[in-house]
Amino acid sequence: MRDINGRNTHKAYDYVVIGSGSAGSVLAGRLSEDKDVSVLMLEAGPTDKSIFIRMPAALGFPLMDDRFNWYLHSEPEAHLDNRKIYEARGRVLGGSSSINGMNWVRGNPWDYDNWAEMGLKGWSYDDCLPYFRKAETFDKGADDYRGDQGPMHIQTCAANNPLYTAFLDAGKQAGYAHIADHNGYRQEGVHITQRNVHKGIRWSTSQAYIHTNRSRENLHVCDNALVTKIHFEGNYATRVHFTRNGKAESVDVHREVILSAGAIHSPHLLMLSGIGNAKHLAEFGIPSLVDLPAVGEGLKDHVAAPVQYSSSQNVSIAKELTPVGKLKLGALWTFFKKGLGATNFFEVGAFIRTRDEIKVPNVQFEFIPMLGEFQHGSVKLEDGFQYFFSLMRPTSTGRVWLASADPKTPPKFVFNFLSTKEDQDDAIAAVKAIRHVVSQPAWDLYRGEEVTPGAHVKTDEQILAALRQSAGTNYHPACTCRMGTDPKTSVVDAHARVHGIPNLRVVDASIMPEIVSGNLNAPIIMMAEKIADDIRARKPLPQAKAKYYVPA
């Protein structure tokens, strides 16, 4: 068997990393820095050479089919009019970091202090901030909050379309602060977005941690390798089974198996391997190795929905995306890596509180200066503008479970979006907050008719009914293999080790004990950086002592 560099692979490795996404590529890159260890990373999908991955403006295309994407759908959602919700998950080198929106958001510092208060020693904001800094090279330089020597290149967006200016000005007119760096001291307010784009190219974790280190002899990466089972001897993981190009393969493990397949597929593979709710596994004839009832439970995602407006002036980006405009865009990007092809469109945003009694933003606004459909697995661009809100800490909880003992059969999952009164109230409040912002004078020059949900939708009951028709996921599944101290309610400990299995770790969004307040890519990278030091028996980076904003 040969890796993506054409080199012969080995029969055994010290570390086998399953999944090459926001965590897996980080772990493989960092572990292979130690020249005396061998690392194999297995990715179920193809390599990431496609222009649709490398070009930031092409972000919508990998969402349209299963070429680079698991293209999953939930079970019918009872509180969303029984719709099945599409969930994009990367099935390509770089995982979801190769198909996401590239918004670089750390979450709120409170999120991590909350983790520590849940009993997870070593996961406070002071513990995590040094690893956020370690991971990045921020284009505005280093300070107490930001790093300038890390593999992930972070770029501040230009935000030079007049609709971006209107978004920022209207937000200030509505009473929100303008924040210079939402990943620094203060998250709450309106901001110019930051993105993981470098020299006009999507800077995924595979770009940052794998392609830059492909010459390492101790790092092998295999694409098109679908892991089917982890084999155990006693309570130690000793072998990983997978199929590659239709052929059954296996590899022995000397030290650790690290599962980084994401919040849907990590619990799936644990269950296939005998780790999970023993009664559930028995339904499919899978012998129980460790009875962990929390495997697959507690699924969280940021429920999201658009509020869309037509524009009274032809200034949206859609006017540049005519057939001729797309040819110009493609040529400028292909030859110079500049122009509209180098943008991810989400160049401004906001974090707000819809209730005074809470101290951490509960709603995120993402904004694009055109009417765009990115949520339900299609791409549609029209003139206008769109606010896209997400609930940051939803109380609705779902789960992941087996559909079959066949590894090729996708697991089943349900989000239970908008199943709680709190989430319903927050979603209604988010729509009202957007309408309030768009009513500000800064929008007078450009504001057309409200397209979605529509000006006729006025009462709380009407807004909620409309949201049941339009709401979906922001592609941020998490919490299905939660960190915790009690094996009855969690799956891994604070070191990401599966309870009862000393040499099996899970490192991805699934181990978040609670979902963080923002996009998940940056937090997952931070977590992987931190756990990589743990695996390497390195002393943790010194705690930071940087304060963060808490409203009075």
TrEMBL record:
GO terms for cellular component: membrane. InterPro entries: FAD/NAD-bd_sf, GMC_OxRdtase, GMC_OxRdtase_N, GMC_OxRtase_C. Its cofactor is FAD. GO terms for molecular function: choline dehydrogenase activity; flavin adenine dinucleotide binding. PROSITE patterns: GMC_OXRED_1, GMC_OXRED_2. Gene3D superfamilies: FAD/NAD(P)-binding domain, Glucose Oxidase, domain 3. Residues 90-113, 262-276 form the Glucose-methanol-choline oxidoreductase N-terminal domain. Its EC number is 1.1.99.1. GO terms for biological process: glycine betaine biosynthetic process from choline. It holds the Pfam family GMC_oxred_C. Coiled coil: none annotated. SUPFAM superfamilies: FAD-linked reductases, C-terminal domain (SSF54373), FAD/NAD(P)-binding domain (SSF51905). FAD binds at residues 92, 227. It is an enzyme of class 1 (oxidoreductase). Keywords: FAD, Flavoprotein, Oxidoreductase. NCBIfam families: PRK02106.1. Belongs to the GMC oxidoreductase family. This is Choline dehydrogenase.
